[in-house]
Amino acid sequence: MKLTNDKLYISFSFAVKNALIALIFICSIGDLQAQWQAYSPVFSDTLGAFDLRIAQNNDQVAWCVAMKYEVTPNTYAWLPSEKLSFAKTSDGGNTWTGGSIPMGPEPYASNLCPISAQTAWASGLDIDYVSYVLRTDDGGTTWTRQLENGFSDAASYVNFVHFWDDQNGVAMGDPTESDTDPVPFFEIYTTADGGLTWTRVPSANIPPPVANEYGSSAVYHVRGNYVWFLTLDGVSYEGKRLFRSKDRGHTWQVLSAADDKINIFSFADTLHGLGAKRISPTMAKLIYTTDGGDTWTDLPLYATSEPATSYVLIPESNYILMTRRANNLTGPFRTMLSKDLGQSWIELGISENAAALKFSSPTVGYAGEWQPADHATRMYKYAGSPLVGLFSGMELDARVTLGPNPASDFLNVRLEVAEPAEFTLMLHDTQGRLIDQKNLEKTVQGNAHFDLSNVPAGIYTLTVSTEKGHLTRTISKL
Q1: What CATH number should be reported for the domain whose range is 399-477?
Q2: Which of 94, 210, 331, 389 gives a 20 to 30 Å CA spacing to 142?
Q3: pTM over 0.90
């Protein structure tokens, strides 16, 4: 989408074009160290992780592009810089390296798409609104410009480029005319030769745009051969329509989620998806689909004293992960999980302000930090415990002995399993707030002690999780 002011501006308070940081996730370095491992900065500055993607056929490979922002408690304003920065891992997040992406003067990222540790594509534009599609085959050391004849109209704006392998890809941009069609339609190209040649998808294969409709940078999802992208209203900056292709971008249709004006969305597979719309600073509407977006069901409204930052539907489990924030600078940044499609939520902890979350499965996930105030930007790897057990949806086969229950000042928990396992125990109140958490090293028998002396009387839920699954028990505090 072409913005009319001299600088590109991003506000976290509104669903502004490009402000939708694809499914931001909050990770932890402290209490939730078992879930997320923080890695030493690969960036030399404080940056905001804008778009992170996992290679479709190799979940050990992930790349992330980052930009510079001016941060206030409620907004992020893009700051011009000479280059775009990226980070990548090729060993499942154990190590990260970084580099830069050249895109003209004061470049602005649209997205980044990796194929392997060596090959990736990036899209974006510079301060003069010149659009770029770039390819690297040497791990980001050098980049070659592609599609120079595309996105060249004054109204052009590349929103993303995606490749399934080193040959087949699609690039999507805002509505423009073509040599044969004077009526603007979404500028979408496909390639089958690694980007050497591109063919524009004809207008007959794309639903025509409506008034003030534009694409949104990096707000797209790919599962298998399916591609979805979100459009925004150029006046209100609300979500406008959701488009889907089942054939790698060659033909497109508009989905019924358009009526809900969703701002962000996530698909766990080709059928199951989640849409989210912020309807007030403390209220969000969630919708859910089981048929790839053809039809949607309303989920319960979510209300909180802290604004929701993002939502993601985890592959293979269909659990919803949500993050909340008090403000952009100091937090707290809370991570919430729903195992029943929004009927109830439990808090997983207070964590770091990280962004651009991507999961390829319940056990493989990455994130990049959203511009910290006092240290260079970190990258994160999902460590797989205990959330793998929560995400799996499997019931844990374990013997749990509680004493005393009802409890007064303390609660002892004894655990027994057939094979050694690492345990995480979380105690929540009836509102889903995390009261206490204990971690046990790998064992077949373990004991945990909870101090309840300062906990109000009432009913609580104990969740016991390992990589095999989880179970819950009800606790009464006298």
Answers
A1: 2.60.40.1930
A2: 94
A3: no
